Amino acid sequence: MATSKLVRFSLGSAQQHMYIPTCNKHQEFLSTFCEDCDEFICSKCAKADHKDHNWNILSTTASHTRRKLSTFLKKISDKRLPRIDEEIEKASKLRKYNQNQCESEIKKLLEHCDDIIARLLKLKNHLIDKLQNNLREALEKLHHEKNYLEKSRKQIEDLVKFLKEKNTTMSDYRLIDTCRELKKLSEKESDIMNFEYSLRYKQKEINEDLLEEISERFGT
Fold first, then answer.
1. Which residues form the domain of 101?
2. Which one of 6, 49, 148, 156 is most buried, by most CB atoms within 10 A?
């Protein structure tokens, strides 16, 4: 199947929006869009590898895309962007939650260690460090996830603005390619939920680790 390297979205000049790449296999303009494969193809590819597929010339596909553009952009603005905002807010709340969870577990651990003889002081510090390391790892993941969400939101917002302003003047190819990019960005899900309970270090698990450490260090 013929492929080509697609130019990514950029806020370039009107002349740049007229650019249409060529097929690597046939060296013809990618003047057709295959709906089944979600890719641009040339007329020869359409008659060969994609002959039984649902494809149309760019102008037809672009016309269809423009008719649906307002609905598509409204869906992004009304649903996807607010959802990303909610996930960003959730990331901030989870950061505080994990901080409080860690402080709570450290407090329990300190109270437990106060009842242990002096020989266990080193072990107490070891378990505190372990909890703090878990916190640092979770906060780092949340930091990266929050940055990703904020970056994705900015990209989506820029694309929405760009399409609203330029959709009538850009080339068919650029219109379809930009809409594809916006769709991919808006549908990509966050992994925030994976971190929600990352610091639920239960007392049973602390006790099991404690007994294991005592057995290894003191031979009991």
1. 14-218
2. 156
Phi-psi region of 185 (alpha: psi -120 to 50; beta: other; left: phi over 0): alpha
CA-angle at 211, arms to 209 and 217, nearest 5°: 100
Structure tokens at 13: 């000049």
Q: Each residue of 33-42: pLDDT tens digit? A: 998 998 998 8
Query: Would residue 2 count as lying in a domain?
Result: no
User: Which pLDDT tens digit goes with each residue over 59-74?
Assistant: 898 888 888 898 989 9
Joined tokens for residue 96: 């505080």
Q: pTM for this one?
A: 0.43
Cα Dmax for the chain: 83
Residue tagged 């672009």 (tokens)? 62
- Please state, in angstroms and rounded to a whole number, the distance separating the CA atoms of residues 67 and 69: 6
Q: What is the pLDDT of residues 143-159, one digit of tens each?
A: 888 888 888 889 888 98
For residue 132, CA distances in Å to 125, 136, 137, 139 come to: 10, 6, 9, 10
Q: At 129, which helix (H) or strand (E)?
A: helix 121-166
**In what order do the strands lie in the sheet containing 55-57?**
39-41, 32-34, 55-57
